[in-house]
Design brief:
24 strands; single chain; 6-stranded mixed sheet; elongated; alpha+beta; 3 domains; 433 residues; Helix Hairpins; 4-stranded antiparallel sheet
């Protein structure tokens, strides 16, 4: 007998109730819609709600802990698992609940994995109807032909992939914890600094004699309160020639989009190709180690800094980006971290000008007038190193996370299509028992 079967032999898809949109409010019973399926979980952050009277007699649409939900409109790859906090929620139309048939010879976890695979997503996108928004029916989901081997093989495959899932969740949690620790460390370093013994100074409340008053509040006695312009040598402004909105390939001259500059990292793919050689300007070329800042952007993003780490060449500053060049004694990374802090961001928000609500500008003179803290040069470098070490640990775990995700994607593609079989592993387990 073939191991390829339709899912309808094992599951049924239950669609949600068509709650009228005019019944939605900010209070009452949560209604789970497509937008509430986020990266494998179901969230109530933006869930619509209805008056409890509206769900009387609709118990069959009430969600249970462990229910697997799948998108049937728009993003057909969206899915999520219901947890105990959502048991009072109800299912809306165009969201499907996967229910295993009582007499089927299928492992529920395995059947769910099939519906999260790239094989299913390709099928769904191919068979879906609609132009502005793709739609797939419950019947079409149930018609999906899948590789469904013996119960033993299903269980082994599910165990392998679930073990990887656990590793991924644990690594994600570790990264979130490390990021939280880094933020706390950064705040302490930029308010208390590092003493001669290499330790964080005690806070002002514990050792007021180590601090002095300044326009920026209490700062260590060895520090100065100054303006950003006093630590800069000069600022480079870019230009934006008229060019097609096509990314510049590696080694080809291009100009940065404003979206290339972000505190999370330099996004070197956010460029436009500059085809006319008359506009190629080596003096505006972005170099590894540059500190860039956006001159014009939305109110939330104007004045965002970015430390450049790249081996790309021939990428030029645009008219919406600036390069901050520092005096020799100053540590560029220290001032990058400073420019990301809320007490500097609030100054930028005030200094930004423009009548448009969607676009603001900040002038070079306004940037130079920003109030910043200036520790001694050696302490600046020590602070930057501490933050770098914390960031390096996060980067290391992020690389491991990406490796796990690639490994899982590869295994899903192999194991859930029968390309690689686990029968030998099953035989080994049976012999061992």
């Amino acid at each position: 007998m073939s191991d390829w079967k339709q899912l309808r032999d094992f599951i049924k898809v239950e669609s949600g109730f068509a709650f009228p949109s005019d019944a939605f409010s900010d209070f009452g019973v949560p209604i789970i819609r497509m937008s509430d399926l986020q990266k494998g979980i179901v969230t109530l952050n933006k869930a619509a709600r209805v008056d409890p009277k509206k769900v009387i007699g609709l118990d069959r649409f009430k969600l249970q802990n462990g229910d697997f939900l799948i998108g049937m409109s728009g993003s057909l790859g969206a899915y999520g698992v219901v947890d105990s906090e959502l048991e009072s929620s109800y299912l809306n139309q165009r969201v499907g609940r996967i229910v295993k048939k009582d007499q089927s010879s299928g492992i529920y976890q395995y059947l769910i994995l099939l519906l999260t695979s790239s094989h299913y997503l390709r099928y769904a996108n191919k068979i879906a109807t609609g132009i502005a928004q793709l739609n797939i029916s419950a019947r079409q989901i149930e018609d999906f032909y899948s590789f469904i081997p013996s119960i033993n093989e299903q269980q082994v495959i599910a165990n392998i992939l679930n073990t990887l899932d656990t590793q991924i969740r644990q690594t994600e949690a570790l990264i979130a914890k490390l990021q939280h620790v880094k933020q706390g460390l950064l705040y302490d370093l930029l308010t208390r600094g590092i003493d001669e013994s290499g330790q964080l100074r005690p806070p002002y409340e514990q050792a007021p004699e180590l601090y002095k008053a300044s326009p920026l509040g209490w700062i260590p006695k060895e520090w100065e309160s100054t303006e950003l312009g006093n630590v800069l040598s000069h600022i480079d402004a870019g230009r934006s020639p008229n060019c097609p909105d096509i990314p510049a390939p590696s080694g080809v001259w291009g100009v940065l989009k404003v979206s290339a500059v972000h505190p999370d990292g330099f996004k070197e793919q956010e460029t436009k190709i500059v085809e006319q050689s008359v506009f190629h300007n080596p003096q505006l070329e972005v170099k590894d180690g540059d500190l860039l800042i956006t001159r014009a952007n939305t109110p939330e993003l104007v004045g965002l800094p970015c430390l450049v780490y790249t081996d790309r060449s021939r990428l030029m500053l645009s008219d919406k980006t600036l390069r901050l060049n520092f005096k020799e004694a100053q540590d560029k990374a220290f001032f990058f971290y400073t420019l990301t802090q809320s007490w500097v961001r609030s100054q930028i928000q005030v200094a930004a000008t423009g009548t448009s609500m969607s676009m603001k500008n900040i002038s070079q003179s306004a940037l130079k007038s920003l109030k910043v803290k200036e520790p001694p040069a050696t302490e600046q470098k020590m602070i930057s190193l501490r933050v770098y070490e914390a960031a390096r640990q996060i980067s290391k775990e992020s690389q491991f996370l990406n490796k796990l995700k690639k490994q899982k994607a590869g295994l899903m593609d192999d194991l859930l299509t029968g390309r690689v079989r686990v029968t030998e592993l099953i035989d080994q387990q049976q012999q061992a028992s």
